[in-house]
Amino acid sequence: MLHFTKIATVAALAGAVMVGAASAQTVLRSSDTHPDGYPTVEAVKHFGKLVEERTEGRYKVEVYHSAQLGQEADTIEQVRAGVIDLNRVSLGPWNGLIPETTVPSLPYVFRSVDHARKVMTGEIGEEILAAFEAHGVIGLAFYDGGARSFYNSKKPIMSKDDLAGMKFRVMQSDIFVDMVAALGATATPMPYGEVYSSIETGVIDGAENNFPSYDTAKHAEVAKHYALDEHLIVPEVFVMSKVSWDKLSDEDKAIFKQAARDSVEKQWELWDAQVAASRAKVEEGGSKITTPEKQPFIDAMGPVYEKHVTDPKLQDLVARIKAVE
Ligand code: GTR
């Protein structure tokens, strides 16, 4: 009996020590709308691993995937308020708040995914990341979100004109609403998590996204016609709440920033593999991919640029992006 008590005491003491050690570690919560295993989720986990190693375990990152902490627009508010420490979202939902984010969200502003990668990891990308701080978050890095195209449940899209009168879900940004209108269709902004059922019940005819999202959110089950028009290449952004950032020492800030940078290449690698795998999977599942001529789509975008790129600073950003070889 005595022996048992002793063991119990030793165990309790060991527990106390462990609690002490655990409290020396700050756990940071990061949000992502995508499921576990998605390239952005894995890239943030990689970032967390680097941060944990480089701070000798003083910081740990937990990724809450699958929109466990809410839909993107809500998590953006939460990260600004310091309720969530870290967040990986699309650049689109920031458009109403941070003017600089509208430029990489413009249709056909990038010539290709490679062009977007080069711009977003270069001087222009750094400038856009810096614009976040005035809005309560620190821009840590941009990830690749690939090219987005239209898909629908109704019919194959063989040319731009086939979109006339159709109804598509877009992310919550006026740019995307105006982009769809310029193509003769109607846009309904709504959270990502509502798209599947809205297509299924016929509230909308379809949506637009890259292959990995079309596949993993299961939109391909309810919208079998995918038209490869690649109208948007919207970067993903990884941010930290300024509330959490301000608690870091200068040394730790540098570690976080570098770890985010170091996670980008990992995301690109995973992304390329996921695009190929998702495309193959949706085709096996019966999705039909058409390739409408792109030029009429590009030509239709004049009104979007006229309305959204009026500020000389944004005009300059567009020109500089286009000039990047
Ligand atoms: C995905 C993007 C998500 C989310 C989603 C959407 O491509 O990775 O962050 O923005 O699109 O359409 O809402």
From TrEMBL:
<dbReference type="InterPro" id="IPR018389">
    <property type="entry name" value="DctP_fam"/>
</dbReference>
<feature type="signal peptide">
    <location>
        <begin position="1"/>
        <end position="24"/>
    </location>
</feature>
<dbReference type="InterPro" id="IPR004682">
    <property type="entry name" value="TRAP_DctP"/>
</dbReference>
<dbReference type="GO" id="GO:0030246">
    <property type="term" value="F:carbohydrate binding"/>
</dbReference>
<dbReference type="InterPro" id="IPR038404">
    <property type="entry name" value="TRAP_DctP_sf"/>
</dbReference>
<dbReference type="GO" id="GO:0030288">
    <property type="term" value="C:outer membrane-bounded periplasmic space"/>
</dbReference>
<protein>
    <submittedName>
        <fullName>TRAP transporter substrate-binding protein</fullName>
    </submittedName>
</protein>
<keyword id="KW-0732">Signal</keyword>
<dbReference type="GO" id="GO:0055085">
    <property type="term" value="P:transmembrane transport"/>
</dbReference>
<dbReference type="Pfam" id="PF03480">
    <property type="entry name" value="DctP"/>
</dbReference>
